[in-house]
Write a structure and sequence with these properties.
alpha+beta; 32% helix; 3 domains; coiled coil; Immunoglobulin-like; FN3_sf; 29% strand; 437 residues; Ig-like_fold; FN3_dom; cytoplasm; Jelly Rolls
Amino acid sequence: MEVQVQSELLQEAKESIDAANNYKDELQQRLLGLNQARKQINESAIQTRDVLKRHFTELKGSLTKLLADRLASLLQQVDKIEQESIKPLDDCQKLIEHGVNTAEELVQEGEVAVLCGTAEEEKLGNFTKKALQIQLDSLPEVPSLVEVPCLSAQLDESFLSSVRERIFSHGAVASQPPVQIEELTERPGGILVRWCKVDDDFATQEYRLQHCKSSSNHFEDAYIGPETEFIVLHIDPHIEYWFRACARGEGRREWSPWSIPQTAHTTLTPHEWITGCEGFSLSSRRDIALRNDSPSSGVLYSKEPTYTSGQTLTFKVEAVGLADKRDSIGVCMDRQNGHDSLQRDRAVCISSNGAVFVNGKEMTNQLPGVSIGSSVTFDVEVVNLGSSITDSTNFKLRVIISSGNREVVFDWVLDQPCEALYFGCSFTYAGWKLLVF
């Protein structure tokens, strides 16, 4: 009995030690989290100070230059007005000075003639004739002071107060960016990014999403627009990517600060069309199929059954050709050659005119016809698996097909369990271009 008690005490002691170690590990993780939080606050504060100092230094230099340029422009206007206004006065002064000189000469000549008296009658006659020719009663006009410019500077005394108000309200410091990324979900060859506005006072006009590989600091725009989610495609599997978002306020030109960058990766293989299908040309990543002018060999299928339950499969129509009732876009359990459409058994699809087919039979419900820019989505989830995953009894998939602003929902009864589906398309006429993701 004593041995048993000792054994139990020993076991309790070991469990307490394990619990203490786990507790210590958890506390150390929380310390690490606190250190990362402290680091984020300190580093963002340093960065914000640098941004503010740089901005206001540049602003000060720009304002000083603008004021100096404006002063120089106004002084040039003063110089121009002064020069243009003085020139007529200078011309008038020259004319008057010439008249004064002429009059002085005439006075001197007249005084000489008078001194000579009647003895020099000829001189008196010549002087009189010369005086008449000069027109001593004709005087040049001199403009009055009200007729000539009187320069002045017209300055708006309220300018400084208005500038002061703008300066006092210029810039702001926020403890958090107005937008944060809230969800990153892996998709085949892509990441679904969702973000949200965390500042209720920030009136958003549009959002901007960027991404880059974790090994690079070169962010690229992925989306600009009003939506709060976007699927970033062409993401290499098993590689970490950074994502960040920001917003532009209503009536503003500048973007808000970036959200805190988040990392994500996808482990899901990208959806690809199979190569070598006559009648279709593929893009380099094999996610875009173009119906060319060659005779079609039937349905273009996916390379592998990469579409699984719980995912959303999207087809985006990037170009259209002539429509035909045999056109089809959809999913299937297997690849079957010899068919010119997915309107067959073991497949569900939508035609270009919006008709929905299940196992080759047309449903009464119909979706809008597809056109350029249309997106057709398939959402599939398991309804039940019978008694086991290999039990084919009543194996059903709940299928939701959406096109435009409408959707159809139905249960697809299968003859055997199916873990993954192929996708495919068929078009009778050339010109159709389809992106899958």
